[in-house]
Amino acid sequence: MIDPTPTAPRSSLTERVRAGDARAIARAISLIEDEAPQAADLVRALFPATGHAYLVGITGPPGAGKSTLVDRLTGQLRRRGQTVGIIAVDPTSPYTGGAMLGDRVRMQAHAGDEGVFIRSMATRGNLGGLARATHEAAYVLDAAGKDWVVIETVGVGQDEVDIVRTADVSVVTLVPGTGDEVQALKAGIMEIADIFVVNKADRDGADRLVSSIEAMLALEEFGPDQWRPPVLRTQATTGAGLPDLVAAIDAFRVHGAAGRVPRQRVRHAFRLRELLASHFMDYVDRRVLGPGELDALLDLVAAREVDPYTAADRILARALAGKDPA
Predict the structure, then answer these.
(1) What is the C-alpha separation between 309 and 12, in angstroms, rounded?
(2) Are residues 114 and 170 in the same domain?
């Protein structure tokens, strides 16, 4: 039987993270990003202290004003006396491998606020709008005692919707006048939204964009116990509409706690499957296949001599048999 609560050594770094030490939080996230050997033990030690923070995902296409919206949302939450952790996911620099845009530049109003921790993370080639380490970084901020963790995705299209598997509430931000009237009609981006925000609502075309979203929502039937995503208007640069956004997030949080299947379970199920796949491939590379054997098998598939299903079955059969390479 698998022990559901494995023990992990409690390091001084773990204790400092749980005490809210900003330098320790930064160090912990760096270890996780770099996939350092001690990262897994760190997450094991921190995980029992998680479950307090509420995760807010802010997503949408490039240029929608997500960073400014996150900055203003953080200000609203801080005025309530609540602490905030921000994970801003950026494209990867081709030179350094780090976050290219550095969204912290657009959040300088909170740079000196001890109740706010801001971390930019590079996608490092990961698809879906998030960095690979986003889940664990959120664990760190949660364990550090943050009341809210706000995750801003890299600019996404209709199929980059991993945020729905990461956040407790997904806020889709759109902007008028850039073709988002069409973007809003695409199934992927429509299906992940718990709240729609039409930002830069003072622009021409805002009414048309709102109408397009409402028209799509009207095609769905929402039962009396189902959440119908509200469509809000904001001007992040001035803060207009931000109190309504906070109120909508609060309402969704109450609605979710009142009987919906907890998203935490969905989130953990997705991450567990990811880890199992990663660990299995690592095991196959180290213990099942010999040097160059996978490449040789791929050559057979490319030559149509073996189909992918048969190739996968062969690898799985050897892994289950526990055979190491000769």
Answers:
(1) 47
(2) yes
